[in-house]
Amino acid sequence: MTQLNIELLLGREVRSRDGKRLGHIEAIHAVRDGESWIISEFHIGPDALLERLAVGLLPRRLREMLQHRRDPRRHRLAWDQMDLSDARHPRLTCDEASLQKAHAQAGEK
Predict the structure, then answer these.
(1) 23-61: string of b/e by CB count within 10 Å (b at 16+)?
(2) Residue 19 carries which DSSP code?
(3) Structural domains of the chain in order of their starting residue, each with its CATH number
């Protein structure tokens, strides 16, 4: 199991495998597993920033309206979609087409 100080990841820019800028890490979700915490997903980009800042400020109905109106721009990444071997330069482990396909399938469920 790899150990990582997640505070070093917050605010870091995430790039695709071909170097395209995708956004900054705005939030990290983790779940408890016994004595450890396991990262479940990363939230990146402007949509994630809006989500983080609006949690307590905007009424629920308005947040839902904004989420449905906005293009779901791949701002939630599963833990295994990120290469953190260099924590200063996180990258996707999959190509963007696979990422968009996974989000489309999740939206159908």
Answers:
(1) bbbbbbeeeeeeeeeebebbbbbebbbbbeeeeeeeeee
(2) S
(3) 6-108 (2.30.30.240)
Amino acid letter, 109: K
Give the CB-side neighbour count of residue 15, counting CA atoms within 13 A: 9
Query: Left, alpha or beta for 23 (phi > 0: left; psi -120 to 50: alpha)?
Result: left
pLDDT 10s digits, 23-72: 999 888 889 999 988 889 998 887 777 777 766 666 667 666 666 555 44
CA pair distance 96, 18, nearest whole angstrom: 9
